Amino acid sequence: MFPLFFKGLVIGFSIAAPVGPIGILCIRRTLVHGRLCGFLTGLGAATADAFYGLLAALGLASLSGLASGWGSTAVRLGGGLFLLWLAWATVRPKPAGSGGESAATRRANGLFGAYATALLLTLTNPMTIMSFAGIFAGLGLSVSQGSQGASVMVAGVFAGSCLWWLLLSGGTSLFGSVLADKARWIDLASSFVLAVFGLAAVGSILGGQ
Description:
This protein is mostly helical. The protein has one domain. The protein has helices spanning about 1-15, 20-35, 35-55, 65-70, 75-90, 105-125, 125-140, 145-175, 175-180, 185-205. The radius of gyration is 18 Å and the shape is globular.
């Protein structure tokens, strides 16, 4: 089973590694809120990767149709608007206080939000499932050993994705002290990149692509 796990690990790492909106969020949150917040952002994406890896590992006959359905106008529009909302939320003025919430409660909500937003953003990205479908089909990695083989493959995908996010958040945190006084510029740069991704997604719909 180890070769199957290793293949899943390589696939999970290679799909997570290209820089996209989740990578930008991970870097920004690591620099501004700390390594744990950045890693949990990646963990949300890794969870979605594991889910789509499971579909691909099971060799579902309807995988291509599912990808096409999730690549519909409504899903792309939702993902694009969500990215634009994240861009706005990154630079909006922060409230001075949070009512009666304790610092621990606010931190817990922030960590959960970091995980949940990345999970939702990855699940609504049709390119994720199409990437897994293409790689698994191209390498002939559809699992025929049953649920055990699928579980091992998915565990490898999840581990590979988590490894990338651990490396990215850990590496980014090394520069935290250097960039600590540039938090506002980090917010502005992150917001700009997220807005570009969001506008590109919405623009592809308006352009009929």
